[in-house]
Design a protein that fits this description.
The structure is a single chain. By secondary structure, this protein is of the alpha+beta class. It has one domain: Nuclear Transport Factor 2, Chain: A, CATH 3.10.450. The chain contains three helices and seven strands. Strands 1, 2, 3, 4, 5, 6 and 7 form a seven-stranded mixed beta sheet that branches. Helix 2 crosses helix 3. The relative contact order is 0.20.
Length: 114
């Protein structure tokens, strides 16, 4: 899950991000965000690319503590914002892992002003 945060959601180069998705995600994996979903490597790459293109170039995703999980399900808390600035958004990723690869990834955003 740490690799997903760094190599997929932290990668603005579409080719490097695509290679990471092929390595980390099952072929028929699904990404579920609060207002959208994507299934398959190409669609996940496109969805993450769209997200990253909507963020300022100095935004970075960082983990809040370690990923934890058991019985094929894991979670990772994260935050994002300017590299040397305040946190703009935080959330939690919940993944179902099969055969060592992400099968589903649910992205939960923390309420703002909470």
């Amino acid at each position: 899950m740490q690799a997903n945060l760094a190599r997929v959601f932290g990668e603005r180069d579409a080719q490097r991000r695509s290679a990471a998705i092929r390595e980390l995600y099952a072929e028929d994996a699904a990404l579920y965000e609060p207002h959208a979903s994507a299934t398959g490597h190409a669609a996940i790459n496109q969805a993450v690319g769209a997200l990253l293109s909507s963020l300022p170039p100095d935004f970075a995703f960082t983990a809040i503590g370690p990923a934890v999980g058991h019985h094929g399900v894991g979670r990772l808390r994260w935050q994002s914002g300017p590299s040397n600035g305040p946190v703009a958004v935080a959330g939690t990723d919940v993944a179902r892992i099969e055969s060592g690869r992400i099968q589903t990834l649910h992205v939960f955003l923390d309420p703002t002003g909470a």
